[in-house]
Amino acid sequence: MKQLFVIVAAFMAATASAQVAEDFKPATTNQEGHEYPMVNSQRMVRAQISAPEANSVKLDIGGVKYDLVKNAEGVWTGESAPQDEGFHYYQLNIDGASVPDPGSMYYYGASRWGSGIDIPAADEDFYTVKNVPQGSVNEVYYYSTVTEKMRHCYVYLPAAYRENPTKSFPVLYLQHGMGENETGWSAQGKTGIIMDNLIAAGKAVPFIIVMDNGLNAIPAHPDTTQQMQFPFPGMSQRPNGPRPQGMGQRPGGPGQGGPRPGGPRRGFGGFNGFQEVLLKDIIPMVEKNYRVIADTEHRALAGLSMGGMQTHMITLANPTKFAYVGMFSGGTFSADELKDAADFKKTNKVLFMSTGSKERGMAEGDNSVTKAAERLKALGINAHSYISPETAHEWQTWRRSLYQFAQLLFK
Amino acid sequence: MKQLFVIVAAFMAATASAQVAEDFKPATTNQEGHEYPMVNSQRMVRAQISAPEANSVKLDIGGVKYDLVKNAEGVWTGESAPQDEGFHYYQLNIDGASVPDPGSMYYYGASRWGSGIDIPAADEDFYTVKNVPQGSVNEVYYYSTVTEKMRHCYVYLPAAYRENPTKSFPVLYLQHGMGENETGWSAQGKTGIIMDNLIAAGKAVPFIIVMDNGLNAIPAHPDTTQQMQFPFPGMSQRPNGPRPQGMGQRPGGPGQGGPRPGGPRRGFGGFNGFQEVLLKDIIPMVEKNYRVIADTEHRALAGLSMGGMQTHMITLANPTKFAYVGMFSGGTFSADELKDAADFKKTNKVLFMSTGSKERGMAEGDNSVTKAAERLKALGINAHSYISPETAHEWQTWRRSLYQFAQLLFK
Q: What digits encode the pLDDT tens for the residues B301-358?
């Protein structure tokens, strides 16, 4: 019996090790000089950490926890199942404590600053830094008359902005998702790199991109009669696959500040307030401080997930403010919403809707971005749809969506 | 006997609790919505983390590890001794694993991305964001002909740069310390905030600040005959008090990439290479891409700790390149070095040397910045010294040094 057990165990170990390709390389998102985490050609993540006195260490990625195994020196090592191409949030769990991996760089998502890892992708060239004319991503503070506080945003300026000191440029306002903040599009999204590469290749015209925070926009004196419904009708489908923990959490949940006595809450409170901050503070600040062509035809609005829903809401409430509108994994416009919108149809140049192929509901069937675009085209709207191959509700979908959308803008 | 023990224990508990002021508030450096870590009026840090299955959790700050205590719910809590005012790197240790605190924001220092905490300071007003004209901190990639790679830096542009679109400005090149990188001056150092406040108050003239990486500047084709000595004569004193772990570690240590077979090493390799990158790549890039007054009189160089030593080395090798020179906790110039430096004396406008009062050797006695400035003044050099009260080899010393130095520049 014992012999049989040994044989079976040896067989299982051999099978398991045959399944793991031993070609692991340090992730590109690692801290300088750190070997771990690593990724292999099967897109498995191998984590490692020294924790000599720990009883249990796990790698927590894509909503699944994987046990790490301790060696004689107290170093724990283990692998995840294969992950999708692109960027994923993850963490380690040491004896019940969820902590960032000291080997990785840190990103804001899933309502916390924590570990992220980039899995090499077949198309990663479009978001790789190259020796082409470089724009810059500018960190800016400004005073908000709506929140009565200083706010913080990032502004991408293309190389042409610097090279043509008297020229004015169009602007895209680009928003992050639930549980993320104004750093997401630049860090995880690689906005500046994608744009510099697109512009250098002649695939996009140079324009400014403003990335602000869509969750902390809480008016000091909220107009409660103007609160919008959330979620939208038709936005009830839950994305499948790994996603930021913040998705679907209750308003005011962890990391969003919690309920505030006697005042509006963060999270969905800020979701509503963002429209007011965008129109009264952000756009005026940008049009005052930068060389901007300040008209509808040269103004775009887009966002991912929650930012796409905000784009949806703000576009319906302000149909002639933005000529280009993009929703990345953020639902679709219905024909009903736009069939009588004469002003919108007159000023809109592009309406773009995208999703990852692994996002339930939006990639196929009657609710898909493809079908939605067909219905909108029948109304005479220049609707576009895009489905990111083999990705879920994650940043690879949104990097690709930006890459597609940017090529349609201001042409 | 048992009674005595109870009495003694009760007395000790009362004494201990009397020593800790229960007025803890969340640190300003916490992640949004996180209560812990906290700081009290005695400048003690209270950390807390849920780790139900852990055997031991410690708070590691200022080179000392403090035991946390577990409650019935598996949540660990504990306090440090009082800390100096200002910013400190720290970490948690869970069963032997050193990890970032999931409650804090993350900073690059001590050769890793990890936790940092700001202890309230009596003078924190000068680095607090205010509703004054705001400049911006710009993230820039550029190609280096020296390293034959893309490099990454930050450029602070004052509000006046935007407001006066044809005007040109002076430039300060400002360097971080060992174990830090190009993000340090903007994040921990609060450069943009300090400058916006100083300029708004009329205490500094507007100028550009370039913050680059002084450690990863490894020439693709190094000229080994040009390697400078390190450490400098007179720089052998070790700072006391808490300091980045990177200080004093061996070249090529953790986070610095380690030795590279057949090539130059990171760390002190980059320390030497930085001069070449600064002169051949950074300054030409800045003078090409920004509206800069490109002469000695409008060019300054400064740095903290290792960055101060680089400033020292580069100034001696290029005595007429920078009219303003600052060394923050980075040693002193000797009268011997400059007594025959006629070119330097002709072009130099200000030579600034600072230290924290708790830094051994540089705050008092014959090797102090005060005495060094006196000796240089006797040579006819406009030398200034500054000693930051009650701070060690840490960021509060360097924030204050920048605040002082900036007021002397380009006037």
A: 999 999 999 999 999 999 999 999 999 999 999 999 999 999 999 999 999 999 999 9
Tell me if residue B324 falls in helix, strand or coil: strand
Question: Taking Cα atoms as reference points, which of A384, A302, A383, A275 lies closest to residue A339?
Answer: A383
CB spacing of B162 vs A289 below 8 angstroms: yes
| Helix-helix angle A306-317:A268-277, to 10 degrees | 50
Q: Which residues of chain B fall below pLDDT 50?
A: 1, 10, 13-15, 229-267
CA distances from A350 to A195, A222, A300, A325 (A): 19, 32, 9, 6
ipTM given for this complex: 0.86
Asked if B145 is an interface residue toward chain A (Cβ–Cβ < 8 A), one would say no
Distance CA B410, CA B349 (A): 9
Return all residues near A149 (Cβ < 8 A) that are at least 6 apart: A143, A220
Distances A288 to A181, A217, A301, A400, B157 between C-alpha atoms, Å: 24, 20, 18, 31, 16
Q: What is the pTM of this model?
A: 0.88
Burial class (CB in 10 A: 0-12, 13-18, 19+), A135: buried
A262 CB contacts (<8 Å, ≥6 apart)? none
Q: Which of B51, B111, B139 sits opposite A96 (nearest CB)?
A: B51
Contacts of A19 (CB under 8 A, 6+ apart): none
Q: How far is CA B94 from CA A56, A128, A205, B47, B112, in A?
A: 11, 36, 51, 13, 18
Q: With 0-12 CB in 10 A as exposed, 13-18 as middle and 19+ as buried, what is B331?
A: buried
Mutate to test the interface with B, among A29, A99, A107 (most CBs of B within 10 A): A99
Measured in degrees and rounded to the nearest 5, phi and psi for residue A195 equal -70, -45
**Positions of chain A with pLDDT lower than 50, given as ranges:** 1, 13-14, 229-267
Please state, in angstroms and rounded to a whole number, the distance separating the CA atoms of residues A407 and A199.
Answer: 9
Contacts of B57 in chain A (CB under 8 A): 97
> Reduced to 3 states, what is the DSSP secondary structure of residue A186?
helix
Angstrom distance (rounded) from CA B67 to CA A99 = 18
Contact A49, A57 (CB under 8 A): yes
Distance from CA of A99 to the nearest CA of B (A): 6
